[in-house]
Amino acid sequence: MKFLPTGSNVPVDMTTKWIDIKHSCVDAMRKQIQKEIHASYQYLAMAAYFSRDTVNRPGFAEHFFGSAKEEREHALHLIEYLSMRGNLTSGVTNLITSPTVKKSEWSSAVDALTDALNLEAEVTESIRGLIITCETDPDSKYNDYHLVDYLTGVYLEEQYKGQRELAGKLSTLKKMMASHGEIGEFLYDKDL
């Protein structure tokens, strides 16, 4: 059986006309998958930190474990989308590489929530860049309407809601710590 010269595993006699995502868009999707996995690892580091017996903030730990799961699910959904569109015939191993964790300790929950909000803003900006890439391919004037709709309808809305939720938690925690000192963090953790 002959294969396409690109190194894919698609036999020559099998039509590839249905595989129509442009290369620049596929590359941007792969980068977004990495961004989601990195965010998941960073949230795992936050959860592990707050789970330590010397820190003991189970509410924050649970919150960050949930955030890690959500980011991992985002990556899985993007992988499934690429598969649905026929773009996982080769090069699957470069979808997931071992990310490095930027930080593994925080001075307070305010510090961690601030980092989480910044991380979410980075992921949102990356999704917006992915949308722009897939919406307008300068070489072919190509617009992948389906993928752009999927990203704007599912991912961006969830990102914006998540950012708003984090900003609210951060604001409330800062107010509690301003009026109650360090016990404010303890009390807020019990309410998460």
Notes on the protein architecture:
The chain has 192 residues and is mainly α. Helix 1 (23-51) runs antiparallel to helix 2, helix 1 (23-51) packs antiparallel against helix 3 and helix 4 crosses helix 5 (182-191). The protein has helices at 23-51, 58-84, 109-135, 145-180, 182-191.
What number is the mean pLDDT? Answer: 87
The helix tally amounts to 5
User: What ranges have pLDDT less than 50 throughout 5 or more consecutive residues?
Assistant: 1-5
Described by the principal axes of the CA atoms, the overall outline is elongated
The fraction of residues in strands falls at under 5%
- Alpha-beta content class: mainly alpha
Structural Rg: 20 Å
Largest sheet: none
Distance between the termini: 58 Å
Oligomer class = single chain
H/E element order: HHHHH
Counting DSSP E segments of at least 2 residues, the number of strands comes to 0
Determine the fraction of residues in helical runs and give it as a percent range.
55-70%
